[in-house]
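User: Predict Peptidase M48 domain-containing protein's structure from this.
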Amino acid sequence: MAWYRRSQRLIFDSFRSYTSKISQPRNPNIQSLSRTNFHTSPFKPASKISQISQPIFTNPLKQNPFLDGAKRFYYVDRNQIRHFKPRGYRRWFQNPRNAFVVVLVVSGFVITLYFGNLETVPYTKRTHFVILSRTLEKELGEKQFKQIKAQFKGKILPPLHPESIRVQRISQDIIEALQRGLSKEQVWSDIRYAPEINSFPNESNAHGTVRALSDKIVEEEKWDNEDKWHKEDEILDDQWVQKSRKEGREKGVASQTGHLEGLKWEVIVVNEPMINAFCLPGGKIVVFTGLLNHFRADAEVATIIGHEVGHAVARHSAEQISKNLWLTILQLILYQFFMPDIVNTMSNLFLRLPFSRRMEMEADYIGLLLVASAGYDPRVAPQVYEKLGKVVGDSALQDYLATHPSGKKRAQLLAQAKVMEEAFDLYREVQAGRGIEGFL
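Assistant:
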């Protein structure tokens, strides 16, 4: 039985020593004695015992690596209430210095982006923001031109068709006038017909064909010089153009025409009743036969082609893409405060549509001078737009709810003295054989 008692005592002592190691003392400031001095006399000074003792009982909170430094994530106020500290970017922005640095860097980036992409429109001297590069704009125009040719495959008139020859000749006159207006010595490729890589037809044959086609409509090209346009009828609604040109002359700004260099001009005529024509970036001109059926005079066709080329001169496509980018950002901000339908309606009425109508008028001004430089009577232009309004159907609200001004409004604006007089003077110089420098 003695061996049984001894083994029971050893088990009890082992269990007690084990539990004593993991138990927490009542007073955490009291440290246990080391095993080597466990039987030291209690009357010995405590200071000497503490010098040679090693801590056995420790605070488990200090040993837990997950709880170590937890105080970094909260703070205690004067009422001994713990509050969580903000984490992530919000904590970083609480420092005024960091917030100032961020605002300064973002502002510098926006200012550099904006002023680094400002350009001056030829003739109007209007400064506009264009973020789209010239190369990308040209590539987009060529890609869209290929899609149009694929879409109307089989309906594109051959290059020797009389209507194709006529449109090519008029387009060639407009492009040559633009070349003179650039006032730069550069090599321009001849205008080509897109479906086949053929040069422009012989000039004498082309003029003869067009002359035969125009025998029946010679009377439509005649214009009463003073009966269709009077100074007293002028509507002074081009103040922004005159003001912009005046400021441009005072500042000595130069028009940006680099996007017009090295273009391969192409033209196609599509056999469709659609009353439309346009010029894509990169010098791609598309005319529909529906337009030619209503406008038979060369000066009328030249007015429309000059207007479309004016869009390419002013880079309106690239500018519209840049404007839409800023408008989209503005709409996303306003969506947080207003209903999306209200935001979309207001942005269209007060931002998108007025901007589109102004671009159309700017293209009218540039096209008018292109027509005059090409040797076509610019006084035909008001009649063309008024006739176009009747063909497509104008409405009283078109000047406010459409992308294009009404034909009547465009006719009134172009018939005013400040615009028409300049174009007519240029036209007379060309007719006298002195129209060399152009107008840009």
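Residues 135-431 form one domain.
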